[in-house]
Amino acid sequence: MKPETSKATHEETLDPEDWEATRKLGHKMIDDMVDYLKTVRERPVWQNIPQQVKSQFTSPVPTSPEQPEEVYREFVNKVLPYPMGNIHPRFWGWILGTGTVTGAYAEFLAASINTNNGGGNQIGNHVEKQVVDWIKEMLEFPASASGVLTSGCSASNLIGLTVARNVKSTIDLRRKGLQPATEKLVLYASEEAHSSIQKAVELLGLGSNALHLIPVNSHFQIDLAKLKAAIIKDRQEGFTPFCIVGAAGTTNTGSVDGLKALADLCKREKLWFHIDGAFGAWARLSSKAKNTVVGIELADSLALDLHKWMYMPYEIGCVLVREEKHHRKAFSLTPDYLAHGEGERGVTGGDLPWFSDYSYELSRGFRALKAWMSIKEHGSKKYARIIQQNIDQAAYLGKLIEASPELELSAPITLNIVCFRFVSAHLDDAPLNGVNKQIAVDLQEQGIAVLTGTIIDGKYVLRVANTNHRSRREDFEVLVREVLRIGKKLTEKKSKN
Ligand SMILES: Cc1ncc(COP(=O)(O)O)c(C=O)c1O
Questions:
Q1: What are the pLDDT digits (tens) for 327-359?
Q2: Sign (positive or negative) of CA dihedral 273, 254, 212, 265
Q3: pTM value?
């Protein structure tokens, strides 16, 4: 039978039928978003999603087309008003970044060319290599290190600890896995380490029991004496210590472990030194703050984010590995259909290694573009100034708290995180925990500010994490004023009851 001719076949595409209408819609989106970002300060930080809106997200899959203008209208009505709120100048919850306009534009450009940065002889690899080189330069990490951009620091921690486990095990773990392992690998971090470290350890098949959490000192840094004692005891008990995870900025308080001392200890004990520098690594940029994180350059692997304290839109993180050969050995796998060679011709050749050889992911988005454009647009000196501005604002907030008899600081302020709570002479810790929790919720629901809480010394505390390039000192004045207003109102009520 003869194949149908091209004329007889009706073939479809997802491209628009009306390119001019598409252009017009795109221009409208840009106009709307520029207005939205320009006026962010005038809106509530956050608002609850009405039930009636939520219920519209349970409809079955659309089977017929809708006009893109209509889909966009739905976005404006149903999505745009109810995001997390982390672009707002008074959002300081968890540790979320704010994003930038150029970062957002770059996302559109990256998606338009839709290049797959897993590898290939293409410009995306050169852009990503340059971004990774710039990160090494900014953080004063050895230029010979390898690196790859990730979806965030959870992924970076997973990659760094994978390399650590594989290098330090006496078994060929890629081939044999953990099944025949006779060695009982263990690693160390402080009790303040981020949960992504535990997740990575679990994913690596080591089990969370292998993560030995060491108590912290009064500055929330890993207690070195207790760490050394744990290593000795574990060896005596037949465990094989393989790694210490240092924190350059803990999530709870922003504390930084004694990184140089940890690096020395790792060298002496022949352990891998991984640093979780999710946000804190970037303090290195500021000449005033860089001493706080001295030692990050000594890590065997360093995990960090760019969507937190480099203010880039989600998602973007990075992991650096001091010895490239270890990094590649942990992840490189080349079946016939992915054969590629540096120096060869065509799209499978080129003069750069493939980034997929340094990660568990093969297909990778072009997140490098937003980093490349952002760093070019602002320059490292401006990032350094804004990072220092955030640190100064945190210190300012600390002073406002100290000047208010109804507020108390709950932890030392190392960098950009402030933990504090509302107190009242009439109430014990248990009701005060409830009051502080309610303050956080009221601040959010009234659209004033978003901060989240944590537990310090068994008490619920309010926590401000300042990775926000839009915050001004006046925003922290508003925060203190409103915490006092809400706190007083709640405690008056409780005293009357
Ligand atoms: C210290 C630390 N490490 C790791 C992470 C995980 O980073 P991500 O959320 O980018 O995966 C966080 C997140 O807040 C963090 O604070």
A1: 999 999 999 999 998 778 899 988 899 999 999
A2: positive
A3: 0.96
